[in-house]
Specification:
alpha/beta, 33% helix, 3-stranded antiparallel sheet, 460 residues, 9-stranded mixed sheet
Amino acid sequence: MSSTLAAPSFETSEKPPAWLGLQAPRYTSYPSAQHFHAGVNADLHASWLTSIRKDQTVSAYVHIPFCRELCWFCGCHTKMTYRDEPIEKYVRVLLDEIALIGKHAAGKGILKQIHFGGGSPSLLNESQLMSILYALASAFEFAPPGELAIELDPRTTSEEKIAFYGSLGFTRVSMGIQDFDPKVQKAVNRIQSFEMVAGLMKRLHEAGIHQINTDLIYGLPYQTVTSFEHTLKQTLSLTPSRIALFSYAHVPHMKKHQRLIDEHALPDDRTKLTLYRMATEFLLANGYTAIGIDHFARADDSLAVAANSHRMRRNFQGYVTDTTDILLGFGTSAISQFPGGYTQNYSATHEYSKRIEAGQLATCRGWKAGAQDSFRKEIIDTLMCYMEADIGQIAAKHGQDANICARELTLLQECAYSDIAHTKGNLVQIATPYRMASRAVAAVFDQYQLPDSAQYSRVS
């Protein structure tokens, strides 16, 4: 690994890119979850479950919405608890939900992949984790998972738990690093040393878990090019198979705990772009391949292999190798994806629990796919995954006229998009090293853009 990589610099006279600061969805669904509505209810959810075929593969996402401490940058649905009782009660309800959904599906569906997210699933004890896995295996036809994954908080993951994950056959682990700089960690209330994370990585390998993802965030308070480069060097010394490089979205109007962050300490737009460019060039120079808008993987990682063969997908878990069309979400706020649309559970634990304990699905809203949704979803997913899309080819696949997106293609030739997208006939290509800008290009093809752009995070 090189330790002398130069970070790119920006002249003070350089104008910020025209797309910088545009607001757009992250497109982990189409349309984005802001459009979900209560018209998609438990009855429709039940009908989609009933329609699952016996030979159809499904994946499961299990949401554990608890943490011991609240990270001030967090945009996830989670809550802080120092006690075990709320977790125990939640797991009991979760088991009832799994049984209820399995009953609606009548045991159909071959369960291939399971992912535990949160929050901090590492708070689950051995008995709780085993009971959830057993419930899933009882509710569906259980095949050896193509991937059995869990998100870990290094601060709440013991050596005994890691050995247990290995014994259960977990294949992939994700853990948040964000930044190793003590000043940055203190500013976002996420204190964990490099030595702690390095020890965790060592124990994971000893347990036979070698597919390890790490998350980094650029745009946090007090980050500098020098400090973040040091974090990158430390991270690469751990040799993770995959790295997510997320942009911090400061949305205190949506996530009130982000008000605890000193806004004056946040990097300005120019510095944030520099952080991204430096990190990208650093990772590319050290054996990682850029995947989508915010991931990097070693060539032998399953995500890199899937990307090379155009089998990569994007859903609520981000970029995945999962090829199933059905993702079943369990727990508060969890979103399920079906060929016909999306459903989402209540976010409030008490409302979620009340519905499940009454023998009802906890569906609060969702989306039923319209006539053009699958067509536009494929355009947006392709742009977000591969930085280019042949609109004519996708239109033909969906039985649409090749010129159906003529207005959008014309719009991409205007000045606001001239430095991020090139069009040649019906081919659209992202033409900028700032891969996150593809969100702005994808939004051009979104027929459901909300009039209130503040519903979305900034592209930066």
